Amino acid sequence: MSNTYRASYLRTLFPSCVLLLIATITHAQNLREVVDVDLLAQREQLQQQLAELESTLGEYDPALVEILSSLADSSALLNLFSEASTLRGRSLQIQRVSLGLFTPEQIPLILTKMDIDERAGDWETINESMEYLYWLLIEKSVSEGEALINSLIQLSEFHLRGVVGDTADLQAHHYQQAYKITYQALTISEESFGPYGPRLIDLHYSLVKQLYLQSAAIERGGDTAYALRAVVPRSKWVIPRRKAQSRYYRTGLQLLNGIRRIIAQRNEDPAESLAMVDLYAADWYLLFDQVQAEEAYREAFAGLQEADVCITELDLLFATPKILPIPTFHGTVSTALTYNQPVQFSEPAEHDNKLEDSLYFKQWFDAMSVVSFQVTAGPPSLAKQEQLPEIRLRFSLDSLNSVSHWVSGRYRTNMSVAKEFNILEPDDQTSINREGLDEDLRLLHFRPRLENGSARPFDGTLLYQVPVN
Questions:
Q1: In a domain, 399, yes or no
Q2: Is residue 365 domain-resident?
Q3: pLDDT at 12
Q4: Model's pTM, two decimal places?
Q5: Which of 243, 264, 290, 372 could lock 285 by a disulfide, CB 3.0 to 4.6 Å apart?
Q6: What is the DSSP letter of 105?
Q7: What would the mean pLDDT of 340-351 be, rounded to a whole number?
Q8: Please, are residues 124 and 146 in contact by the beta-carbon 8 Å criterion?
């Protein structure tokens, strides 16, 4: 093809491509407008139905609750969160008028309204709702048994969401309230279902993770760390950092021992599950940089072998490092593998005679920057769906050897943290806060890759989803 012909061809092709692009964008915009028009029409229809019912039945008839809920959902889809919250509030008022002030039927409505208020960023209203809901559950005892435990767990989770969503001066309050409420759920579970009830292991491990969240917040420093170390809330007297961390460490071990006791009494053949508790205890040692972690991993591995766990499953479980803390307690190797299947981002590549694996790490939120959601690589489409920026990094672990580095103005020595992180993607790194990124990632602890119970070095890649502030 001659240069003249190529130029003529490109001049002809370029306008066609532009027209195609414009047509595609226009189609997407028109589609969105159609969707919005449909939602608006649906909302107007519901508003008309509501007005008709109000004129016939009055403003506080229980029959209005269903259409108020539908109208609130319609408003939320249009991002009219204030309107949706007001409508949920009306439903709540109607229920209180018709059923009474202290009834369990209002709990789902309160929680749904809190969800809407969170989407609106109205944490002042959420805090009022959380305070009222706690009073309703604990002081007025409107619920009991499994329903009460579930409500307390949801309330605790809202406090954890408040750590990132609410103002910075209330972060410590939300941490502490979440822990207190989860502990109350655990106590009520023991009273309702006995010392070996079905929810107790999950509640114990939830408390273990929350202790780590507070420990990590203290390590990051700042006002939240200071508030968490206060002798009493809002006190200017604080306990030393080392003493606070020692308290978290000891309490976490006690909770893991609680899981061990439950398994020993509840399971007919507890050997494998007890060895899994030993594995999580080794993780806990590692998170607090305790040297006994190395021996604890060997003992846990030996315990799993003695429990007749298939060597193939053990090799799979320990083939790659895991970001700590592990999100869920797994009582068997098979369940751990089910929730933790390694996914390759590309075809396996040989690197030092081992498979090239990618770990997936997403910050829960900035204040708890060392918390992982999923510990192995997730589908590449996940981040795209959530519209969160991604960074792919190369990292290196030197088994359980200690690494010394500066983090948040302190010279720290930690076990099983990455020696270094090198950004592989994106190519344009001008928008990346490298100093902040280093401080976040250097606090990550990894359960090491194990061979026959012994920690081994590892080189791999980390897909990191940058949190949206």
A1: yes
A2: yes
A3: 45
A4: 0.82
A5: 290
A6: T
A7: 39
A8: no
